[in-house]
Amino acid sequence: MRKVSRLSRFNIASLALGLAFLYLPILILVIYSFNASRLVTVWGGWSLRWYHEFFNDRAMIEAAWMSFRVAVSSATIATLLGTLAAVALSRGERFRGRTLFSGMLYAPLVMPEVITGLSLLLLFVALNAERGFWTVTIAHTTLTMCFVAVVVQSRLGSLDRSLEEAAMDLGCDPVRAFLSVTLPLIAPAIVAGWMLAFTLSLDDLVIASFTTGPGSATLPIRIYSEVRLGVKPEINAICTLVIALIAVVIVIASLASKLSSSQGESAAPL
Amino acid sequence: MSARRIFARPARFAAIAPYVWMVLFFLVPFAFVLKISLSQTAIAQPPYEPVFDLTAGWDALKAAFAALSIDNFRLLVSDDLYVFAYLRSLTVAVTSTVLLLLVGYPIAYGMARLPRRWQAVAMVLVIVPFWTSFLIRIYAWINILQHDGLLNQILLALHLVSQPVVWLSTDSAMYIGIVYSYLPFMILPLYATLAKMEPVLEEAASDLGAPPWQVFWLLTFPLSLPGVGAGVLLCFIPIVGEFVIPDLLAGSNSLMIGQTLWLEFFTNKDWPVASAAAIVLLVVLLLPLLLYERLQKRQLEQGR
Q: Could you tell me if B265 lies within 8 Å of chain A, comparing CB atoms?
């Protein structure tokens, strides 16, 4: 009798190659950000020179600050709205326009960003809104709340509804049951959703380009215009800093979910 | 509605805020795109007047409708530039999606066959690059692919080539960039269906004498079709509208529709034509979505 080995050499090779393909370029970028040489490709020894250059580049710092503020505010609003949307969809009795609602929530996930950006710009122009911090924040909220909704909804879907029902049988009204039973259980997903929204906003170039005004460029817009002019070692340093920031965010997110899941386990026997 | 009744239907109550937001900032903007795509270039030149002046009443509305014109759509069909841009976008998206499937499937399959504990680790490893900025990841490839970049240095050192190969500003660079950026979107749905599949099935098939390629082609692949569909859709649609990757890696000899839109909007400032192009793009993209939905429905019916 022949048995299909569950993990063949081919499986391991394709996995290893795939992960190398995903990680090597980023690793190379990080290493070269510490390169002392002005030429991006010639290794001139370790140095923090390009980090120094970045911290003296006022325009870049301003763009980074703008990006950070937009990311924090849009992620926060998006998490609120996205969580509400997820609750409405997964705990929903049927309501009028439910199909339209879920359609609107899924469409931005796949829609080309050029279209989303263009349509929002036309709206803001028609409303005569001054373009800058708030228009970018609104645009990013619209995009990222859909991601939050998906993340939270999948957690809600895997949750045992009888917990909520038990709370209501014991006299909680639905809102109270949600706040004291469901919310703590989906908290990890909400944290993950916020983090995802934050990084997506920090990352976005296309929608930000359409919805921002003169003088309020975000970091990706700045990086993009620099990269188009040619490779500069300073960009390596900025990119490494962004990667580090996102790594910190991921670690916090995973710690948060680990913490709450272990709390859930210890609470379960009681 | 009294507060009590609202709280008795918490789901409806929860839907209000996100619903209003999405209508305001997702649905309504498309009305503006549609309106501007239907207006003439001369009167739609930025800066704009408000499009619908509701205070002016019916007459103004009638006048607005009278001013609608489909000239922009006619231009799109008659101008080779746009026709080629759409065709190129579709070609690039189809090619990239096929490449993504070829690269992503073995990885997803390998993941699904790992021991449970390692599957979670592998999944995190695949998702993490998706969290790092895609602009940065494209930039990382510029570092590698440029004239005196790492790839050419390695090729030269191994004496595989005698002089540096031009990678940047070529289609191969663009395909590398696209496959690299979209790979997690292809792997995750594939992995999700492959991991659910019982390995016992494959073992049974092979016990009954099927060679490995037959096991894969007659059993594994057909069973993973839902994942293939989701992955293809998740990659294909955004790639059609892709702007940044071709702009940074492919050079400017032939533009995709995303780039053409961008240029029309920011350089030529011809907003009506750009809006019309966006609407055509949207319609083109709705077709695969509807097709996918229909396929899924049929699969559900067959499943019963």
A: yes
